[in-house]
Amino acid sequence: MDVKELILKLQLEVHPEGGYYRETYRSAGNVTTGNGKMRNISTAIYYLLENEDKSHFHRIQSDELWFFHQGQPLEICVIHGDVLTIIHLGNDIENGEVPQAIIPANCWFAASVKNSAGYSMVSCTVAPGFDFSDFELAGRENLIQQYPHLKNIIEKYT
């Protein structure tokens, strides 16, 4: 199945940060977050990037877990404190890829298909559940001011 068929069959739509997605789960139960917001306990999405697509630097107020399904490996860049970590999400464990990654709450992160060719199909779960009001897309200049030593990677993903 080619990527266009996959997008149609899974009913994916364009995501505001880049790529395609579809929410597949939103728990019926709720929880109150540390800052007093009511959120679903957990949410899950399919997420797909192809070729030059990018998930631009953004952050959310919950932990997010990424699970690799198929296609090319995904490169996830995470800024935690002042440190940049690059995670290779995929199935080639012998060469440093991992099938699952954890992005801590409030960390800036971005992603792209490794080598910018093909597609990468993953799932993401968020707990407490995702809400667009907790989503913050990074501004290039502000992020470079905070992390001047990461200027090149910030320019790539903003």
Describe the protein.
- There is one protein chain.
- The strands form 3 sheets. Strands 1-2-5-12-7-10 form a 6-stranded antiparallel β-sheet, with no helix packed on it.
- The chain has 158 residues and is mainly β.
- It has helices spanning 3-9, 140-146, 151-156; strands at residues 13-14, 20-26, 30-32, 38-40, 43-50, 54-59, 63-71, 74-80, 83-89, 100-103, 108-113, 119-127, 136-137.
- It has one domain (3-156): Jelly Rolls (Sandwich).
- The model has no long low-confidence stretch (mean pLDDT 96).
List the helices and strands and how they pair.
Blueprint: H1 3-9, E1 13-14, E2 20-26, E3 30-32, E4 38-40, E5 43-50, E6 54-59, E7 63-71, E8 74-80, E9 83-89, E10 100-103, E11 108-113, E12 119-127, E13 136-137, H2 140-146, H3 151-156
Antiparallel strand pairs: 1-2, 2-5, 3-4, 5-12, 6-11, 6-13, 7-10, 7-12, 8-9, 8-11
